[in-house]
Amino acid sequence: MKRVLLAGYGNIAHAFEKIMNEQEPHGSYMLATCDLKEGQDILHFLPRHHDEFDVVVNTSLANSNKVARMCIDYGLDYIDVGIEDGLNTDDAVSSLNYLEVMKQILRWPTRSHVMFGFGVNPGILEHVYQRYKPQGAHYAFELEHDDAESDDYEIFGTWSPFMYSEESCRADLMVVNKQGIIDVTQRLKDNGRTMYLTYHGGERHYLPIPHEELLSMMLSDENLQGTAYLFQAVRGMQQYFLERGADITDEELLAIPVPHCLKGEDQVGILFWDTKERLYWVKNVMANQTTWKRYGTNAVCWQTATGAWIAYRLLDAVSTGHPHTMTELSQLMPEKIDALLQQIGLTFETEEQPFSVEEFKQNIMRYF
């Protein structure tokens, strides 16, 4: 029996618990929690209780590297839905410098299984990139439309509003190309605050928020010319953030509800452009009512927790010599990852030409 500790017991952790209950054989694991809301800080909890667990799954705000180092020292397997603590973006930052830091982390000597960045992004979308990328020079964009609707709230999140604020109104916004990380925050302010495209007759507005896996993708294929994470959050919350910006207090952020019984769906995937005329979006489309009825959670939390469950399933299939990412495992064992996605029902479809190529060039590629 594997003794699993959930570090953090928020929305994603609840979804992970539900997935484990459904997918894992009864009696094959024991799940315990370390919940900051209960006064339990994983950085203080683990030194006292490390001998009680075999696996730590970190969905908390605790520093990934610090928790991972502890687990390595104690010989515990470790799964994190993130990696590092985000990108520091200014005009002087080089993607090559950041990648060197990331490569150093992934060379840490370990004696246990360590999995960094196993959510949906980072995580599952890195696998989508590897499986569906075109031959030759191309661009690849993480693209997400969160179209959740609530009967009860106008402003709400489908995951942590605090964490989203850290990546949007409190962060430098960025795209990445071969030359480095490009801070586009001021240009966006000058050009209307968001990037936009027309999708099925309606205008969609995106923030290019910083995510570490963009650089993992850049490192993995010399043909990838540039990338960004184009995120349209729940519209009420996104507009609230755009209007209030960095003036929103932590208390206000923590008061924003994260409901799970929602209408609408989340569309998340990779938008590929072959630098010529082919523009296609490989995406998972998941209805909130589907995940609510099956898991008691909204679509975004379920998608993220699925990445952590895939890491759990792959623990015994990977080496103990160094930490792993989804980009690496997607290249080493793509069929195993495909089978797990199929088993849990997280499938992908391809939408050809979701946007006008001319509009895409004008409104997105101008920032590269």
Question: Using DSSP, what is the number of strands?
Answer: 14
Unreliable stretches: 86-93
Kindly state the percentage of residues in helix.
25-40%
**Structural class assignment:** alpha/beta
The profile of the biggest β sheet is: 9 strands, mixed
Give a written overview of the molecule:
The chain is of the alpha/beta class. Helix content is 38%, strand content 22%. The chain contains 15 helices and 14 strands. The strands form two sheets. Strands 6, 7, 8, 9, 10, 11, 12, 13 and 14 form a nine-stranded mixed sheet that branches. A five-stranded parallel sheet has the order 2-1-3-4-5, sandwiched between helices. It starts with a strand and ends in a 5-residue tail after the last helix. About 2% of the residues have low confidence.
List keywords for this structure.
368 residues; alpha/beta; nine-stranded mixed sheet; five-stranded parallel sheet; 15 helices; 14 strands
Give a nutshell description of this structure.
This protein has 15 helices and 14 strands. The chain is of the alpha/beta class.
Please outline the helices and strands.
Elements: E1 2-7, H1 11-23, E2 29-34, H2 42-49, E3 55-58, H3 64-74, E4 77-80, H4 95-105, E5 114-115, H5 124-132, E6 138-146, H6 161-167, E7 174-177, E8 180-183, H7 185-190, E9 195-199, E10 202-208, H8 213-220, E11 224-232, H9 235-244, H10 250-255, E12 265-273, E13 279-287, H11 288-295, H12 299-314, H13 326-332, H14 334-344, E14 349-352, H15 357-363
Parallel strand pairs: 1-2, 1-3, 3-4, 4-5, 6-11
Antiparallel strand pairs: 6-12, 7-8, 7-11, 9-10, 10-11, 12-13, 13-14
Helix pairs in contact: 1-12, 2-3, 5-13, 12-14
